[in-house]
Design goal:
Chitobiase, domain 2; TIM Barrel; globular; 12% strand; 614 residues; 20 helices; eight-stranded parallel barrel; 15 strands; alpha/beta
Length: 614
């Protein structure tokens, strides 16, 4: 087996290593069966396709026939993406992160003919850290991202401390000895390791966002926790709200400053520029204000403009400072909460420095986001009287995005909260949303989500990555391919079972909440579970060395167990038992927490049950 690397770039070297590893597993370690050239288009004697920015935009050329071929890309990351596209065409699948999610078929390469020329549908195809995670959880996700078409990872805060602490200190866990919170230095070391793995794959690195207003005045921007010791200089600059200047709920992250204050603007700009100067590996540096809403300063000067006008002043000051230091750092600004409404009096001195992020989120993810007409009620700005975290309906979310895109013509993406889109129907909404981004003028997605979201399946995440890469893919094809890979011959039965039980649990909860008769729906759910039992037993008992499908069926077994518990819970609620949740749901949660290590990479027990037991 010969893999010819036409450049000394370490990302392409990693691509070559991955290609060799998978081809050896595929062919049983045979040598001399494949010869592949890897490099940039020019390295391979090819003319590159026209893209806006070859360093940021991914395009690939793949040829493979009778054991010989080449993989070229617009940048080193694209070469790695091209390698995984070749491997997908050869039958490899990655249904979840880590070794338990990889499926490599045994086959010969002699009769293969593959020809691909593809350009990614969007520039921004990024997953953002959230939830309770270990270092290995994050590393597995970073490794998995390019395998399904993603091209970036976002570490919130300067070191991700709050997400690591949730796991390592076992917050709220009844079956583990309580541990002290981890040291911030450990979180920083974790972050350095993660940054190294991001660089190893050439992924676009998004960073920080939260905490600049605190860090600029000597307060650690590590998370949303209460802090007793807040610096005097931070307290001096706190926003005047309802006649008081106070740390809201004792949490600096939720406390605004007086953003019209020139010293606040300058201190924040210098703090951000200091970070950018040290962290030149960051491709997109997010600059946000505080993390709350209707908490902005009401002093006489702050009342003269919209909050976003002062935000733009801070960003322009930062732009000047970065320019002075000869830093070409890309800066991400956002529309969110109090910042939904565009500025009226200020604008960006150099739009090319900035990327726009629409981060409103929405209450209903059961409906796709689509452009709307003028009939949607407009939103008016009123200081500290804005809708909580955004807007009430999908139509309003779309209308406000359209307002912004009429003003912003440069680079942009949406920041969404899909979670892992664990249900089949939520995965379909993600697919439709991603296809619609271009209709708004957006150039991609950063999805803010817990990383342990692979239960009962990883369909939503795979759908997200594949559709961001290619919006022409059909959901039915993605789903059919996923279930066949994850579960084998009974994949279609699994999909049918999941779809029907998801629909029924939702309907049962709706009926119970409305105090309507749910007995028929509960009986139907119980029948579905019993009917699926032999399928589950047959696959759980199957012998073999297929770790991917073995894990998929083990997780399916856990899902069936939860469905059985849910029917008991629903019967108790329907019968009017006042302690139904205590009888069923809580003990099940405790049992899952007892064996959490067995399922740790795939789900957070409380979160997984909260979707079902309401």
């Amino acid at each position: 087996m010969g893999i010819c690397v036409k450049t000394d770039d370490p990302v392409v070297a990693h691509a070559a290593a991955e290609l060799g590893r998978c081809l050896r597993a595929m062919t049983g370690g045979e040598t001399g069966e494949a010869t592949v050239m890897l490099g940039l288009y020019a390295d391979c004697g090819l003319e590159a396709p026209s893209v806006a920015d070859p360093a940021l935009d991914d395009a690939i050329h793949v040829r493979f026939e009778r054991g010989e071929g080449r993989v070229a890309g617009t940048n080193p990351r694209s070469v790695l993406l091209g390698v995984y596209r070749l491997l997908r065409e050869l039958g490899c699948r990655w249904v979840r992160p880590g070794p338990t999610g990889e499926l490599i078929p045994r086959r010969s390469l002699k009769d293969v003919a593959i020809s691909l020329d593809e350009t990614a549908s969007y520039r921004h195809r990024v997953v953002c850290i959230e939830g309770a995670v270990s270092l290995s959880n994050v590393l597995d996700v970073v490794d998995w991202l390019p395998k399904v078409g993603f091209n970036g990872f976002y570490m919130q805060f300067q070191d991700g401390y709050t997400f690591f602490d949730r796991w390592y200190s076992h917050q709220g866990h009844p079956h583990r000895e309580r541990k002290e919170p981890i040291e911030r230095g450990m979180a920083r070391e974790f972050t350095r390791v993660i940054e190294g793995e991001i660089a190893r794959r050439g992924l676009l690195y998004h960073a920080v966002g939260h905490g600049w207003h605190a860090e600029a005045f000597g307060v650690p921007g590590t998370g949303w926790m209460e802090m007793e010791d807040v610096s005097a200089e931070f307290k001096e600059k706190i926003a005047l709200v309802a006649g008081r200047r106070t740390v809201l709920w004792g949490k600096p992250m939720l406390t605004a400053l007086c953003y019209s204050d020139p010293e606040v603007q300058e201190r924040m700009a210098r703090c951000i520029a200091d970070y950018a100067e040290v962290h030149r590996d960051v491709d997109y540096l997010h600059v946000w204000l505080d993390d709350s809403y209707n908490n902005k300063c009401e002093c006489e000067r702050c009342r003269t403009k919209r909050t976003f006008d002062f935000y733009v002043q801070i960003l322009n000051t930062l732009d000047e400072e970065l320019t002075r230091r000869e830093l070409d750092t890309r800066v991400v600004f956002l529309a969110y909460a109090d910042l939904l409404m565009p500025p009226l009096q200020e604008w960006f001195e150099d739009e090319g420095r900035f990327t726009f992020m629409y981060a409103n989120g929405r209450n209903d993810y059961g409906q796709a986001l689509e452009p709307v007409g003028e009939e949607v009620e407009p939103l008016s700005f009123e200081l500290n009287r804005m809708p909580r975290r955004g807007l009430k309906s999908v139509e309003q979310v779309a209308a406000r995005l359209q307002d912004w895109m009429e003003r912003w013509e440069d680079d942009s993406f949406i920041f969404e909260y899909y979670g892992g889109a664990e249900t089949v129907e939520r995965a379909r909404v993600v697919w439709q949303d991603v296809r619609n981004y271009r209709r708004f003028g957006l150039n991609g997605l950063v999805n803010c989500q817990a990383l342990r979201v692979w239960f009962p399946t990883g369909l939503g995440m795979v759908t997200m990555g594949r559709t961001l890469w290619d919006t022409e893919l059909e959901f039915e094809d993605i789903a059919a391919d996923y279930f066949a890979a994850a579960y084998g011959p009974d994949g279609a039965a699994c999909r049918k079972f999941l779809s029907e039980t998801e629909q029924l649990t939702g309907e049962i909860n709706r009926l119970l909440d409305a105090e309507e008769d749910a007995a028929g729906a509960v009986e139907e759910l119980e029948g579905l579970v019993e009917e699926f039992g032999p399928v589950l037993e047959r696959n759980e008992a199957a012998e073999g060395d297929d770790l991917c499908r073995e894990t998929s069926w083990r997780l399916m077994g856990l899902y069936v167990r939860i469905m059985r518990e849910f029917t008991e819970y629903a019967r108790a609620r329907a019968a009017g038992h006042p302690a139904a949740m205590g009888m069923i749901g809580h003990p099940l949660r405790e049992q899952l927490l007892e064996v959490e290590d067995e399922y740790q990479p795939y789900l957070e027990p409380r979160r997984a049950l909260r979707r079902i037991f309401r």
